[in-house]
Amino acid sequence: MDVDPDTENEDLFFDDDADGSFDEAAPDQPEVDEATGGPDTAELIATRSELKRVEAENAELKNQLARRQADFENYRKRVERERSETYNRVVADVATKLLPVSDNLKRALESESSVEAAESDEFRHFLSGVDLIWKQLNGVLEALGVKPIPAVGEQFDPHVHEAVVTEATDEYEPDTVIQEIVSGYRLGDKLIRPALVKVATRK
């Protein structure tokens, strides 16, 4: 039988196994340099680096936004507080000027009420007009947030009451306000003026 000269010298490698089989030599494979990698590896590394940069930038922007929001909230609260303080100060100044007028109207009504029955219809109408003005003035003060301080029957409180007279009596507990001489007023937590009162003392 003729033998092909091209295959006559083909290299065969016999296995040392007992069965006597043999393996054909595998062709040489190109080695991959893991240190340097290929174009795909370089692109992946660049993408990861860009992602880290974007994440860091995003975190910084979020921090800046949180700081701006906190600054704005503090500014809003400060403006509201200053506006409220200004309003209360103006109202307190106005109330301080109007309260003596209210006091005088009240005194006039109290002093004339005892003789009203003996006076003419015209005078009674005049007192009714004064009473209406006094009530309207108190309504304006109340609409502004000015409230009277409770006095008669209350326990004496040096923060809102000013004792100008004391009376020894067994009818009331000591340090009880038994008469309001001049009404006191407050605007929210701000005291406009204390109530002038008579206070009971122990006999």
Give the key terms.
203 residues, alpha+beta, Nucleotide Exchange Factor Grpe, Chain A, domain 2, three-stranded antiparallel beta sheet, three-stranded mixed beta sheet, 17% strand, disordered N terminus
Structure description:
The chain has 203 residues and is α+β, with helices and mostly antiparallel strands. It has a domain at 146-203: Nucleotide Exchange Factor Grpe, Chain A, domain 2. The chain has helices at residues 5-8, 39-112, 121-143, and strands at residues 13-14, 22-23, 146-148, 161-168, 177-182, 185-187, 190-193, 195-201. It has a three-stranded antiparallel sheet with strand order 3-6-7. Strand 1 and strand 2 (22-23) form a beta hairpin. Helix 2 (39-112) packs antiparallel against helix 3. It is elongated. The relative contact order is 0.08.
